[in-house]
């Protein structure tokens, strides 16, 4: 979807904006995230131990890895033009429903819940569902907030 103005964006309130492509979560990405966040819990990075001791039989992505990839996946769904700046503003709600196993493919489904003009800055509340390929239960559901400053 391409949006060129606040009014075009406002016309999408209540609608599903779209669905991103699937993204495969690799062990290399999980390891790099562990290094970046200093979270080296074995369930994420020790493939041998996870194979033998984890209830999942493999490593899993950090929950916050799944959150941190949301802006990347959101950008696949929508292109907002004629803006000075976009900021990841916050998360209103978030619930982890199940872990993302290594080599799983994930994608985001997004719906624009609201758009409010805050003195020239558009506050977009987006309902997101992070789906796991071939799974009926999503990895997470939540409400993320972006701020857009239109020109």
Note down, in words, how this protein is organized:
The protein is built from six helices and eight strands, in the order βαββαααααβββββ. The protein has helices at 6-10, 27-37, 42-45, 47-53, 63-68, 70-77, and strands at 2-3, 16-19, 23-24, 79-80, 83-96, 105-118, 121-132, 140-150. The strands form two sheets. Strands 2, 3, 5, 6, 7 and 8 form a six-stranded antiparallel β-sheet that branches. The protein has a two-stranded parallel ribbon with strand order 1-4. A hairpin with a 2-residue loop joins strand 6 and strand 7 (121-132).
- How many strands appear in the DSSP assignment? 8
Compute the separation of the termini in Å: 19 Å
| Helical content (DSSP H or I, runs of 4+) | 25-40%
Number of helices: 6
Query: Rounded to an integer, what's the Rg over CA atoms?
Result: 17 Å
Derived from helix and strand composition plus strand pairing, the structural class reads alpha+beta
| Sequence of secondary-structure elements | EHEEHHHHHEEEEE
Instruction: Give the mean pLDDT.
Output: 96
Q: Characterize the quaternary organization of these chains.
A: single chain
Enumerate the spans where pLDDT stays under 50 for 5 or more consecutive residues: none
- Biggest sheet statistics: 6 strands, antiparallel
Beta-strand percent range: 35-45%
Gross morphology is elongated
């Amino acid at each position: 979807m391409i949006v060129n103005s606040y009014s075009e964006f406002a016309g999408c309130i209540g609608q599903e904006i779209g669905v991103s492509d699937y993204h495969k979560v690799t062990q290399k990405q999980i390891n790099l995230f562990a290094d970046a966040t200093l979270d080296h819990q074995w369930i994420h990075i020790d493939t041998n131990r996870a194979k033998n001791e984890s209830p999942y039989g493999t490593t899993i992505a950090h929950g916050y890895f799944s959150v941190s990839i949301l802006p990347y996946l959101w950008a696949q769904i929508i292109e907002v033009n004629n803006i000075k700046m976009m900021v990841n503003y916050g998360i209103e709600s978030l619930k982890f429903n199940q872990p993302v196993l290594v080599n799983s493919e994930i994608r985001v489904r997004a719906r624009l819940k609201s758009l409010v003009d805050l003195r020239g800055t558009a506050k977009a509340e987006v309902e997101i569902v992070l789906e796991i390929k071939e799974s009926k239960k999503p990895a997470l559901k939540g409400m993320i907030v972006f701020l857009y400053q239109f020109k």
